[in-house]
Amino acid sequence: MRNREAEVQEKIRAIRKRLEEGLKVLPTHDHLKDLPVEFEPVDYRTLLIHFSGAVFFSEGDVVAIREILGGTRSYEITHDQDQQVRLSFTVTME
Known about the structure:
Layout: H1 2-24, E1 37-41, E2 46-53, H2 59-69, E3 72-79, E4 85-92
Antiparallel strand pairs: 1-2, 2-4, 3-4
């Protein structure tokens, strides 16, 4: 079991690094760099990635993040009562 958990954490680190490096080269998406990002493993193959903040997410933001991440199966934009917006991606960990 520990090997699987370590493997998942390694995959998350690789995805986090790919996301950070990808956002660095996209100057039109600078506002995304400072947002809190949460990585939530669902199982050993699926990861939810959540961006949140009091911001507007454009269609271009979604496309850019999907291209950086690759393997995104879906995304969802939700709003809460505190005017916070959450952009979530479901990603397959390979």
